[in-house]
Write a structure and sequence with these properties.
With 111 residues, the chain is mostly helical. 76% of the residues lie in helices and 0% in strands. Helix 1 (4-16) runs antiparallel to helix 2 and helix 2 runs antiparallel to helix 3 (42-55). The longest helix is centred in the C-terminal third of the chain and has 17 residues, at 77-93. The termini are far apart. The mean pLDDT is 93.
Length: 111
């Protein structure tokens, strides 16, 4: 019940601005990882994460990590692994060691 208001606000924001990448990412993350039955929705998480990644030409490692989590939530382990590897590669290319560490930590949770 705690996440319902947040999801409702994000959905309202996306109705006004359907290509708001930050809202797409946050709602996808919530839908992929929430323990609440009414909130957890792997298929919707995947759709929102894919859209966010497409809007950024799959160049944002944070969005790719969310995509990896959405794939994992949907039971698509190989797609999850591929998205997380791409996220790690981009973060390393960006020279962002803290981001690399955060992504590696998240990837361990979905293995």
């Amino acid at each position: 019940a705690q996440m319902e208001p947040a999801v409702a606000h994000l959905q309202a924001a996306l109705r006004l601005e359907p290509e708001m990448v930050s809202a797409l990412n946050i709602i996808a993350l919530i839908q992929a990882t929430s323990a609440e039955d009414g909130i957890r929705n792997p298929k919707a998480a995947l759709a929102n994460a894919r859209k966010a990644c497409a809007l950024t030409e799959e160049k944002d490692p944070i969005l790719l990590t969310t995509l990896a989590l959405a794939y994992a939530a949907d039971g698509q382990k190989e797609a999850s692994r591929q998205a997380s590897e791409k996220a790690l590669r981009i973060a390393k290319e960006m020279g962002e060691p803290d981001l690399v560490a955060r992504i590696e930590e998240m990837v361990q949770k979905i293995k």
